[in-house]
Amino acid sequence: MSSIPSTAKAESFDDFYTEVKEIEKRDSVLTPKQQIERLLRPGSTYFNLNPFEVLQVECDATIEEIKKKYRRLSILVHPDKNIDDSERAQQAFEIVNRSWKILENEDTRKKCLDVYQEAKERTDHMIEQKRKKFKKDGRLAEGIPEDDPVKYKHAVYVMTMKLFADMERKRQHLETRDMEERKRKREAEIEQEEQMSFEKEWAKNFEESRQNRVDSWKTFQSGGKEKKKKKIMGFKPPKPKPESR
């Protein structure tokens, strides 16, 4: 068990809650340019896998709260509102739209919430293992970093992003494997089609050549008999000469 007094924990949590609210307030007034930068920053490919992160809402936010934040963000990053940076604004706008569609759908939102739940469970398990190690090493009185609510929230956040990234890598792997399988299947179909075409052409050519061979043989046979008949009919025995005395 943690050695931090409950009063200290309460104060720590209050400080943490205040800090979170300050961050939310700061982010809520980000300029369009800052929002575009946030959504397209280095590493955003993985950050943006988490729709709650994209829309800057907590995972327990209501659908109405999410919708309200989506509308605000979509207006801020809309290409028509950012003529001087319309291409990047369009990218940011599509990211926001995609995140809203994920959270708007009850099934996909539930899957995202399941990721958060698993992240929390894994983090709690990691903390428990760390606590056991501290106890074994006689360092339990020191407490562990994740006893601090801010650090605990960060640990859950990191685990959440890791799970989203793992899911995306798995999806890409399955997609690549599926594409390769379909490619192999199509290649096999093409090979089979070519083989059938070859066999059909071969059979056609064989039939044509067979008929030609039959015709040639008939012609040969017919020609041979004519020659033989002509030889027989053309034979004339010599006339007998009269005897002279």
Automatic annotation (TrEMBL):
<feature type="compositionally biased region" description="Basic and acidic residues">
    <location>
        <begin position="197"/>
        <end position="216"/>
    </location>
</feature>
<feature type="region of interest" description="Disordered">
    <location>
        <begin position="175"/>
        <end position="245"/>
    </location>
</feature>
<feature type="compositionally biased region" description="Basic and acidic residues">
    <location>
        <begin position="175"/>
        <end position="189"/>
    </location>
</feature>
<feature type="domain" description="J">
    <location>
        <begin position="50"/>
        <end position="117"/>
    </location>
</feature>
<dbReference type="Pfam" id="PF00226">
    <property type="entry name" value="DnaJ"/>
</dbReference>
<protein>
    <submittedName>
        <fullName>DnaJ-like subfamily C member 8</fullName>
    </submittedName>
</protein>
<dbReference type="InterPro" id="IPR036869">
    <property type="entry name" value="J_dom_sf"/>
</dbReference>
<dbReference type="InterPro" id="IPR001623">
    <property type="entry name" value="DnaJ_domain"/>
</dbReference>
<dbReference type="InterPro" id="IPR042858">
    <property type="entry name" value="DNAJC8"/>
</dbReference>
<dbReference type="GO" id="GO:0005634">
    <property type="term" value="C:nucleus"/>
</dbReference>
